[in-house]
Specification:
single chain; mainly alpha; Receptor-associated Protein; 3-stranded antiparallel β-sheet; 16 helices; about 5% strand; globular
């Protein structure tokens, strides 16, 4: 299914903008005509010259779910709730998407089907949960649960962003200091040598770096850009991506911290899905895919197969050697007690707190590394300029 961004006029000659998903161009024009609109301009959204589709942020998803939950709980119909939510959207693209969802539901489509028509704007997890809520007749409860889920997700994202501010500032400061030392300080002291051939090896090396930064800085920029896009491309290669994702959770130092973050997200997602009545196999598939780690996805193919064959979830997850033994034990207790959904919910709360602590510890590892790096660079520069400085002092004494 393709998406079309359009500009049209309604019966009152008022300009209307929006996005419609359709099988092809003819289907798109037919759907626009059904709305009573006259199209003045449209573009296929996956073409090179089109506007990118709008994707709802975690904060916006939390707000929309919370508003829908409140309205549905108070007794409003789903159609009326979506209509009110559409009018509350401040972003024009978001309003156009909700308007299309409103019209689809009003015509008799299910809410999950209307969301699925905009699967590039909404996460697959939300669409699945809405479908489960409609099937069980508890859409208001599901919306409240989704609101809590995305609120916690947004809180974790904000924690990560907030914790990374200081290391980023420190990294920028390191780069600025290095550039300043090599382009302004080093040339001054190198000029003190009457005979460059008498410079110590370290000073010669530092002088070469200084000369490179002053005269061929553009090569460095090209190398940085090439490295950025090279790494980005390499991570799209399945084998390289698999090794990189495996290193994230198995690597020394960062591995246990990243695993805690993954465990918190996995536990919360699995708890939300399972308590909504979705089959365990589907819960596992969606819970692992939401982590965005190819190594975990590969391991969970085996977990899903084992669970299908009647193996217990705790035993299957233990064999992956991804999550902590305590988490696997908790799942075992939940299975034995027949209260897996409630235990998973409590476990997700615990691991979310652990995730925040893990983020702080991860950042705490980065900060001293940057400070040590900056100290080493300054020490090298001092060692490089010291002979010139010492020689100038001797010349002054001799005079």
């Amino acid at each position: 299914m393709k998406s079309f961004a359009y500009v049209a006029q309604d019966a009152k000659n008022k300009q209307v903008k929006g996005v419609i998903n359709a099988e092809n161009e003819q289907d798109f024009l037919k759907r626009v005509k059904e709305k009573g609109l006259y199209v003045t301009d449209y573009k296929e959204s996956d073409s090179d010259n089109s506007k990118s589709l709008y994707k709802f942020k975690t904060k916006e998803l939390a707000f929309c779910c919370r508003q829908l939950a409140a309205m549905l709980t108070s007794g409003l119909t789903l159609v009326k709730s979506i209509d009110i939510l559409t009018k509350e959207q401040e972003n024009e693209k978001a309003r156009a998407i909700w308007q299309d969802i409103y019209e689809s539901v009003q015509k008799g489509d299910s809410f999950s089907a209307a969301l699925e028509a905009h699967d590039s704007a909404f996460p697959e997890f939300l669409i699945s949960m809405v479908g489960a809520g409609e099937s069980s007749g508890s859409l208001d409860v599901i919306m409240q649960r989704m609101s809590d889920h995305y609120n916690k997700e947004n809180k974790l994202n904000n924690t990560i962003k907030g914790a990374m501010i200081y290391p980023i500032i420190l990294l920028v400061l390191c780069v600025v200091i290095v550039i300043f030392l090599f382009t302004f300080i080093m040339p001054t002291f190198i000029g003190m040598y009457d005979d460059p051939s008498k410079m110590p090896a370290l000073t010669k090396g530092m002088a070469a770096i200084s000369d490179f930064l002053k005269t061929k800085w553009y090569i460095l920029i090209i190398l940085v850009i090439a490295a950025f896009f090279g790494i980005r491309y390499a991570l799209k290669v399945p084998k390289i991506r698999l090794k990189f994702d495996r290193f994230l959770i198995k690597g020394p130092g960062i591995g246990p911290l990243i695993t805690k973050i993954y465990t918190g997200r996995f536990a919360r997602t699995l708890s939300s899905l399972y308590s909504s009545g979705i089959p365990m196999v589907e819960c596992l598939e969606r819970s692992s895919s939401i982590l965005g780690n190819s190594y975990i996805d590969e391991k969970f193919v085996g977990v899903v197969d084992e669970v299908k064959q009647g193996e217990s979830l705790s035993a299957a997850i233990t064999r992956t050697e991804i999550f902590e033994p305590m988490f696997c034990s908790v799942i075992y207790v939940g299975e034995e007690a027949g209260a897996l959904d409630s235990i998973l919910e409590k476990t997700s709360d615990y691991y979310e707190e652990e995730s925040e602590s893990a983020v702080q510890r991860l950042v705490g590892m980065i900060e001293p590394m940057l400070i040590i790096f900056m100290g080493l660079i300054i020490a090298l520069v001092v060692c490089g300029i010291y002979p010139a400085l010492y020689g100038s002092f001797e010349s002054i004494e001799n005079e």
